[in-house]
Amino acid sequence: MTATIYHATPSQTDSTPDRTATNFKINMANPAIHRIVAVSRDLESKGFVMNSTILVSNAGDMNGLWVIRDRMNKRWTNRIDFLVDTTMKGGKWNNVKIELYESN
User: Fold this and answer.
1) pLDDT at 102
2) How far is CA 68 from CA 71, 77, in A?
3) At CB < 8 A and 24+ separation, what contacts does 60-64 make?
4) What does the alpha-carbon distance between residue 9 and residue 86 come to, in Å, rounded to a whole number?
């Protein structure tokens, strides 16, 4: 799977960049604090649904727990997007692994 980054800006989201697909309100001063990930729509049928927590590996500094709160444009498949603040420019990881995380 491929992972990239996105910013909460109208050019990368829609006219309401402070809201995710689940209507979660993003802290625009520090969007990365939420550890939000957007998933391609094909992953939803594999169980990676809104508000699920996932464990990401093989993505360097982006490894760890993230919450699915956004959905990618339908043109993307087998892909996730990490929400980061605008100071991070560029980021792409190949062969990223994700799994559903269930706390005990």
Assistant:
1) 85
2) 8, 15
3) 60/93, 62/3, 62/91, 62/93, 64/35
4) 9
DSSP 46-102: TT--TT-EEEEESSGGG-EEEEEEEE--TT--SEEEEE--TT----EESS-EEEE--
Look at the block and give the residue holding tokens 């799977």. 1
CA distance 44 to 3: 16
C-alpha span between 96 and 63 (Å, rounded): 9
Which residue is it, tokens 């996730």?
80
Mean pLDDT by 10 residues, the chain (104 residues): 96 93 95 97 96 97 97 95 93 96 77
Q: Looking at residue 104, what is its pLDDT?
A: 57
Q: Are the C-beta atoms of residues 43 and 80 closer than 8 Å to each other?
A: yes
User: For the chain, what's the residue count?
Assistant: 104
